[in-house]
UniProtKB/TrEMBL annotation:
<feature type="domain" description="Xylose isomerase-like TIM barrel">
    <location>
        <begin position="44"/>
        <end position="289"/>
    </location>
</feature>
<protein>
    <submittedName>
        <fullName>Inosose dehydratase</fullName>
        <ecNumber>4.2.1.44</ecNumber>
    </submittedName>
</protein>
<dbReference type="Pfam" id="PF01261">
    <property type="entry name" value="AP_endonuc_2"/>
</dbReference>
<keyword id="KW-0456">Lyase</keyword>
<dbReference type="InterPro" id="IPR050312">
    <property type="entry name" value="IolE/XylAMocC-like"/>
</dbReference>
<dbReference type="InterPro" id="IPR013022">
    <property type="entry name" value="Xyl_isomerase-like_TIM-brl"/>
</dbReference>
<dbReference type="InterPro" id="IPR036237">
    <property type="entry name" value="Xyl_isomerase-like_sf"/>
</dbReference>
<dbReference type="GO" id="GO:0050114">
    <property type="term" value="F:myo-inosose-2 dehydratase activity"/>
</dbReference>
């Protein structure tokens, strides 16, 4: 069965693509004219043969989809009429997994998202672990067994709750988060039950942490239920300030597909051995030209798989 090509809604968050000058203007536009926002997204995807969507924060969030379409069912029907579908949703704006957090609220939020994804035709919820703290900040945050055991417990609770709705949980490897270095991944995977917690490795972010995404993908091939395909210029060799700008800071270390150091042949081969083999999710952070970027990504994958 041929792979489904998909992309994260972040691909469409470059204000210039919309003739706007800021993220705030894009948010306002999508809120005021949701039909126009989604029509352009769908029309753009039609030019690329990328048919899958991963929802996330902002204009492409579950909440904003409900405001625009009224229900997951209506959204699914609209997408289907354009040959598109939801494959997953990233819980970027979910309650934080902090010490002392309300586990009941975290689970209720995940269950609501899972219900939406199931009705919208998807099968996966993706989340990340909390961010690290800047080196030198006091008190420091140590990503140790105690820290990971607490997060593993939350992941187990969510995974068990949403499994009842036919949705699986995949935890994403994000730069400067508690799941960034290969050692982080090894620790978290060792503490989580594969029946309830899957892995969503990101080829770019693992590279930025000095790791080898192919090695990670091969080591955890049976845990990978989705992967984010993205290129990187190489490891981040400085301690970035981890604050509200960290995601923007990280973008300068990301590369266009084929212009970075990711071993796409090795990554593609490893992905074919995973349960997530049927979805190729091309992740592009706010592409200036989504059509060109997605076509370039597809071309890289197809060469690697030939």
């Amino acid at each position: 069965m041929p792979a489904i090509y998909a992309t994260d809604m972040i691909t469409f968050y470059q204000p210039g693509f919309w003739g706007l000058s800021s993220g705030a203007e894009l948010e306002a536009f999508a809120a005021a004219k949701p039909d126009a926002f989604w029509d352009k997204v769908m029309a753009t995807l039609a030019e690329t043969d990328v048919t899958g969507i991963e929802l996330t924060f902002g204009p492409g969030s579950i909440g904003n989809v409900l405001k625009a379409f009224g229900s997951a069912k209506a959204f699914r029907e609209t997408l289907a009429s354009r040959g598109l579908s939801v494959v997953s949703a990233f819980m970027a704006d979910a309650p934080a997994w902090a010490d002392g957090a309300d586990l009941g609220a975290i689970i209720a939020d995940a269950e609501a998202r899972a219900a939406f994804v199931a009705e919208a035709g998807g099968s996966l919820l993706v989340t990340g672990l909390p961010m690290r703290r800047t080196v030198g900040v006091r008190p420091p945050l140590f990503i140790d067994a105690a820290f990971m055991s607490h997060k593993a417990g939350i992941a187990h609770a969510i995974g068990e709750a949403i499994e009842k709705q036919g949705i699986r949980l995949a935890v994403h490897t994000e730069s400067n988060s508690a799941l960034w270095y290969e050692r982080d991944i090894d620790l978290f995977m060792s503490l989580t039950d594969p029946r309830y917690v899957g892995l969503c490795p990101d080829s770019c972010h693992i590279t930025l942490g000095g790791g080898d995404p192919v090695r990670v993908a091969s080591r955890y091939d049976q845990r990978i239920i989705l992967a984010h395909w993205k290129d990187a210029v190489g490891p981040i060799e400085e301690n970035l300030v981890i604050d509200e700008t960290i995601f923007l800071q990280q973008q300068r270390f990301m590369a266009d597909f084929g212009a970075g150091v990711v071993d796409w042949s090795g990554w593609s081969k490893a992905m074919l051995a995973t349960p997530g083999r049927d979805i190729v999710l091309l992740e592009l952070d706010a592409a200036r030209d989504p059509v060109a970027a997605l076509l370039a990504g597809k071309a890289v994958v197809e060469r690697a798989r030939s």
